[in-house]
């Protein structure tokens, strides 16, 4: 029996989670293990009613479990950032979910916006570092409050020391500091190499910006070079993140396992999601191999579609497959992914984003039915 806490969240969250639960329950019947859901109320409604975002006692409770099934968060009635930082980022940080695993795989039957590219071309994994970098939250704003005389001294210094004409008379500055640790980098890079090994990949690509942010990503590369020495038969290389956005589009077939710091990982996986056909198709796992992990679709809560039974639950079902894999039900995870893949490839029951007219629930039921037939 596996006990799984569930946060369905806001907007389309309840509908996509319902579809996901239906499919996972079918898999648990087919593979003879129990699933026991524990629904938790956190999200916009709960916050607006109680002023509580994610209380400490919820974290204590969640810490008892291996995996949380998560829908989507965000609501126009709540200021941006409150729920995202207070729930998603809090879970990632409190539970030290240092890996954000994001498969970029074009399923058969889905058309990529990239011309002439099929499932064989778009099939890689991004391992995004998930607890450091610019997400550490160190930052602030300050009035510089400098006198004209002090500014004059600074200008001279810039001029004589660096030969630069810099205007230093800003009245207010804002700053945000990115920081990574050697240990934090090592563990996620090791995870990426292990992932490569398990999936018969012979290349790990590091994505950074070591040509400009030399301190932070200089160390990132140093660590990658060190870790790589422990893995025979797996090459590694580096791309700058700006170039990566270009290569993802031009040569997606080049990539196998990609590992990248948090911020760039956020950005390039939205691009990756588009390559695989859209945000509705992109799952993610926030993983702490020794703690509480969390599985979710990449997309947000799409408030304008809330309650319309039209959202594509594929990303959530797929995230459920990653969850099953994580809790040791690998066969059930595979069964879910295969069934999902089959239903999409057949093309008879598709949600509107994929050109069909099936509702969220109907799509979920169809995948669940396929799980029962194949299981
Ligand atoms: C994601 C999201 C989050 C992030 C937000 C909602 C905090 O964009 O999971 O990619 O920035 O990581
Ligand atoms: Mn994102």
UniProtKB/TrEMBL annotation:
Residues of the signal peptide: none
Classification via Gene3D superfamilies: Isopropylmalate Dehydrogenase (3.40.718.10)
Cofactor: Mg(2+); Mn(2+)
Molecular-function GO terms, alphabetical: magnesium ion binding; NAD binding; oxidoreductase activity, acting on the CH-OH group of donors, NAD or NADP as acceptor
This protein's UniProt keywords: Manganese, Metal-binding, NAD, Oxidoreductase
Keyword NAD attributed: yes
Domain Isopropylmalate dehydrogenase-like: 3-367
A Pfam family that the UniProt record links to this protein: Iso_dh
Recorded superkingdom: Archaea
Record-linked InterPro entries: ICDH/IPMDH (IPR050501), IsoCit/isopropylmalate_DH_CS (IPR019818), IsoPropMal-DH-like_dom (IPR024084)
Protein name (Swiss-Prot/TrEMBL): Isocitrate/isopropylmalate dehydrogenase family protein
Species this protein is from: Halorutilus salinus
